[in-house]
Amino acid sequence: MTRATGPDHDAGTTALSPVLWTECEPARLARDQDEVLAFAPLLEFQRPADDGLTHGGWIGVLPRWPFERPRPEALDELLGNQELRVLVVYSAAHPMVPPTIYSIDPEPSIWEQTQSAWHVAPGGSLCLLQSDGGWQPEASLTELLAKASGWRIEYALMKAGIIDAMSVNGIVSDPSHDHLIDRAIQRVAETPDPDEVGGADVSP
Known about the structure:
Layout: E1 2-8, E2 13-18, H1 21-24, H2 26-39, E3 43-46, E4 57-62, H3 75-79, E5 84-89, E6 100-105, H4 110-113, H5 141-159, H6 178-190, H7 194-198
Antiparallel strand pairs: 1-2, 3-4, 4-5, 5-6
């Protein structure tokens, strides 16, 4: 949707600028800001036009384990010092259309973006919904953010070779991968150091 801003006398045409959802849905904007800041205090709101985001968004770090069940003991060891830094991009149709979420760090490789098992679309956006109808306009943005946090954990499990495809429902609602976090660390601990193996004394 666009709106006229007045005639461009030099070009002899009427210049148009987009109608911003933030202006049309101020109550929803306030709700998003309250809910997101409570869920992920390290996310920063980007106003429309900030950093090229026509309709605004968020950028920053998501929590590691925002789920309502016990946190696996080995989670921090699995993820190391690398937090999940994301870019959340609103569309003109928000909240009718879900925001797009990109993982900035870690950044999925081009190859991973072409493989459905990694739940990343070409271009780098995360595939967090099973279908186009998986998002409801009244839903909280934090539901998608929680799914993104779960994606980060499964991404680490994929990188560690513990799973060969991400789960259909995601870690948010599917605890079946929780125990694999500890297994990933055990596998790393059991893997011999190539330098130590190569330097071992094999004389009789």
